[in-house]
């Protein structure tokens, strides 16, 4: 099997502090660099430099975390933000529930693809080169969408686990081994 290079580009996680509500005005005033304009958006936008992550914080006690490239970094960023929120006087009684919603990864398959041949041979694909130069390959297991390009590069989204990224890459290699240029 061709050695596929891959790199996680982004992770999207939801964070839920059960039975907690945030005073967004107070929180925004306490978090350096936080942006809060309730007339434009009903949450706080907050970016953390180390570990790198961005957050949308809502009064309901829920947040979205994006931008981390590793689950460990996302968890560190969430822990760091949780500590900062507690410092503002917000009462957080339990640890947050964290759930991965989406992982985006880039791939280099190390060979060129014949996208027209792949489109003809696989029903779970879409390829309209007049509209978009990539082939959309929809996978059932793991559930994800991979964009393949003639160059042998690709981008995948929809992964919920890091180990699913390489499983998907292996399936692409197995399903397209005779459809190269």
Would you summarize the structure shown here?
The chain is an alpha+beta fold and 181 residues long.
Provide an overview of this structure.
The protein is of the alpha+beta class and about 180 residues long. It folds into two domains: about 20-95, TATA-Binding Protein; about 105-175, TATA-Binding Protein (2-Layer Sandwich). Helix content is about 25%, strand content about 35%. The chain is built from four helices and ten strands, in the order βαββββαβαββββα. The protein has helices at about 25-30, 70-85, 115-120, 160-175; strands at about 5-15, 35, 45-50, 55-60, 60-70, 95-110, 125, 135-140, 145-150, 155-160. The protein has a ten-stranded antiparallel β-sheet, with helices on one face. Strand 9 and strand 10 form a beta hairpin. The longest helix has 17 residues, at about 70-85. The two termini are about 15 Å apart. The mean pLDDT is about 95. This is TATA-box-binding protein. One of its GO terms (molecular function) is DNA-binding transcription factor activity.
Question: Could you tell me the mean pLDDT?
Answer: 94
Q: Any idea what the radius of gyration is? A: 20 Å
How many discrete domains? 2
Secondary structure: helix percent: 25-40%
Distance between the amino and carboxyl termini: 16 Å
CATH level 4 superfamily of the largest domain: TATA-Binding Protein
Order of adjacent strands in the largest pleated sheet: 2-3-4-5-1-6-10-9-8-7
Which fold name corresponds to the CATH topology of the largest domain?
Answer: TATA-Binding Protein
General form: elongated
Number of strands: 10
Regions with pLDDT < 50 over 5+ consecutive residues?
A: none
Q: Identify the CATH architecture of the largest domain.
A: 2-Layer Sandwich
H/E series: EHEEEEHEHEEEEH
For the sheet with most strands, the description reads: 10 strands, antiparallel
Name the CATH class of the largest domain.
Alpha Beta
* Helix/strand/pairing category: alpha+beta
Number of helices: 4
Strand residues, percent: 35-45%
Sequence repeats: 100-176
Protein name: TATA-box-binding protein
Family: Belongs to the TBP family.
Keywords: DNA-binding, Repeat, Transcription, Transcription regulation
């Amino acid at each position: 099997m061709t050695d596929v290079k891959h790199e996680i580009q982004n992770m999207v996680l939801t964070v839920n502090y059960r039975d907690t509500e945030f005073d967004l005005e107070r929180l925004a005033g306490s978090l350096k660099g936080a942006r809060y304009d309730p007339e434009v958006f009903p949450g706080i936008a907050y970016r953390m430099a180390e570990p790198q992550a961005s957050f949308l914080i809502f009064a309901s006690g829920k947040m979205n975390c994006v931008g981390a490239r590793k689950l460990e970094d996302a968890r560190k960023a969430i822990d760091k933000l949780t500590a900062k929120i507690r410092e503002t006087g917000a009462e957080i009684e339990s640890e947050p529930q964290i759930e991965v919603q989406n992982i985006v990864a880039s791939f280099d398959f190390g060979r060129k693809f014949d996208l027209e041949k792949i489109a003809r041979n696989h029903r779970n694909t879409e390829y309209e080169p007049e509209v978009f130069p990539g082939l959309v390959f929809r996978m059932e297991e793991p559930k994800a969408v991979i964009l393949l390009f003639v160059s042998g590069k690709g981008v995948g989204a929809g992964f919920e686990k890091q180990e699913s990224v390489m499983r998907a890459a292996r399936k692409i290699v197995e399903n397209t081994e005779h459809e190269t240029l």
